[in-house]
Design a protein that fits this description.
Layout: E1 9-10, E2 13-15, E3 25-29, E4 32-39, E5 44-51, H1 59-73, E6 83-89, E7 92-98, E8 103-104, H2 105-112, H3 117-136, E9 139-140, E10 149-154, E11 157-162, E12 169-170, E13 182-183, E14 186-187, H4 196-199, H5 206-222, H6 231-240, H7 253-262, H8 274-289, E15 310-311, E16 315-324, E17 327-334, E18 339-347, H9 349-353
Antiparallel strand pairs: 1-2, 2-4, 3-4, 4-5, 5-7, 6-7, 8-10, 9-12, 10-11, 13-14, 15-16, 16-17, 17-18
């Protein structure tokens, strides 16, 4: 049987190589390794995740993997990298994800430093929308972190794609044991961004992902995770140590307060849904940027959404530039400052609310 390192093809998918000849790894974690690969039938690049066979020892484990992969494949959202195939070959289980050609939030912040509050909030809002869509499918990501958020440029706008929903588990109708975060006694997830209930190996739901979103927002604003040290030290701090707020001293007070709420130790003290977090993020954005943030739903203008319409009482639409997955883009005039805005994205009702 070929090992993962020896295999270069899985069915019709060929693992690609870097210029130095090594296999092109996109990520590596407890559940397996993700490679950049080529679909020989469709002639396109994909991301192929090979599952660590230690986690699939036995029929029950394999069936669990299949349920998780099928659950992830059912999730379709502009801010989620889609899963679209799974299979077995050479004794290995694998599945295919949309290849996202960009850089992770972790890499972006490492290169450029902490993000301005407005930029961090806009990215967090997109992640919250993805989590709201997952909640509708009763899915929990379980490993939300900056390294699992891909940034791409879409018509000049930064768009987040949440990757690796392969750790997600359906939370409805599962036993306590099947919803724990350990597999074979091994912690699955990233301790730097894990919720206290994950650390304890307890049951997890959407509120656990919201804690991880809070820790990720902390990272975007400060350039570092909330807690540091060895894995054991970090896990202990998630359980017992208050979130250090000093690094957030430069962040707007409302934003720091939202991070604190998201990272409450007790899940009952956090926002209870991703939709509630979207509302909180929008309120923070309005305070940071002013009432006209370009985030109003398409129904905001009086009259049809077309050149000449007035949006949020401050922007007059001049010319439609085209559609994007998030909504419609316009060239607009900023009436408050008497200048022409380069572009303004008007989010579609569905994308702006995601169930609100």
């Amino acid at each position: 049987m070929a090992t993962t390192s020896e295999a270069t093809h899985y069915q019709r998918y060929e693992l690609l190589r870097r210029p130095d000849g090594s296999l092109w790894e996109l990520g590596r974690g407890a559940m397996g390794i993700t490679y950049k690969a080529y679909d020989a039938n469709l002639h396109c690049t994909v991301a192929l995740k090979v599952i660590n066979t230690a986690h699939l020892d036995g029929d029950a484990a394999q069936q669990r993997f299949l349920r998780e992969a099928r659950g992830a494949a059912a999730l379709r959202h502009p801010n989620v990298a889609s899963v679209f195939n799974l299979g077995t070959d050479q004794g290995h289980c694998f599945y295919l994800m949309e290849f996202v050609d960009g850089e992770t939030v972790e890499a972006h912040v490492s290169r450029h430093g902490p993000l301005p509050a407005a930029e961090a909030l806009r990215l967090a809002l997109q992640v919250a929308r993805a989590l709201a869509a997952a909640a509708k499918k009763q899915l929990v990501h379980r490993d939300l972190k900056p390294a699992n958020l891909m940034l791409i440029d879409q018509d000049g706008e930064p768009v987040v794609k949440v990757i690796d929903f392969g750790l997600a588990k359906g939370v409805a109708g599962q036993s306590e044991e099947s919803s724990r975060l350990t597999i074979g006694g091994e912690f699955v997830g990233t301790p730097y961004y894990a919720s206290p209930e994950q650390v304890e190996g307890g049951e997890v739901d959407t509120r656990s992902d919201l804690y991880s979103l809070g820790a990720t927002l902390y990272f975007m604003l400060t350039g570092r995770p909330p807690f540091s040290g060895s894995a054991g030290q970090v896990m202990s701090q998630h359980l017992y140590k208050p979130v250090p707020m000093e690094p957030l001293a430069e962040a707007p007070g409302d934003v720091a307060a939202l991070v604190r709420r998201l990272m409450e130790k007790d899940p009952r003290q956090r926002p209870q849904t991703a939709w509630a977090v979207q509302e909180a993020l929008l309120e923070c954005l309005e305070r940071v940027c002013g009432p006209a943030t370009g985030l109003e739903p398409a129904s905001a203008p009086k009259g049809p959404l077309s050149p000449g319409a007035l949006l949020a009482q401050h922007y007059r639409l001049l010319e439609e530039l085209g559609d994007s997955p998030q909504g419609r883009q316009f060239l607009a005039e900023d009436l408050r400052h008497q200048r022409r805005a380069s572009s303004l994205l008007v989010l579609s009702r569905e994308f702006a609310s995601d169930g609100l």
